[in-house]
Input
Amino acid sequence: VQLQASGGGLVQAGGSLRLSCAGSGRTFSSIAMGWLRQAPGKERELVARISSGGTTSYADSVKGRFTISRDNAKNTVYLQMNSLKFEDTAVYFCAAGSSWYLNEYRGQGTQVTVSS
Output
């Protein structure tokens, strides 16, 4: 079972990026998917989560700026990031699972760097 993230990069503050994460090896439609991030010197945090039924949850720091969505037919979860801030700079990881923090499956990270 794998989760393959893509879409990271370098963007100026105020810009946008869209992350994608494609799952393989099983069907993910029955479990939650989401994104975590880890900045240098900081703990990993849950950024956004979407349940199997489509209910979304966001960290307070990204509410109103980030949107998570999923396409079950493609086994894929997306993270649209708008109005990016310097403090959004981090390695972003996609994840899936039955627990709140999506501990069951984790993909490799993709670097997002926001220049101020």
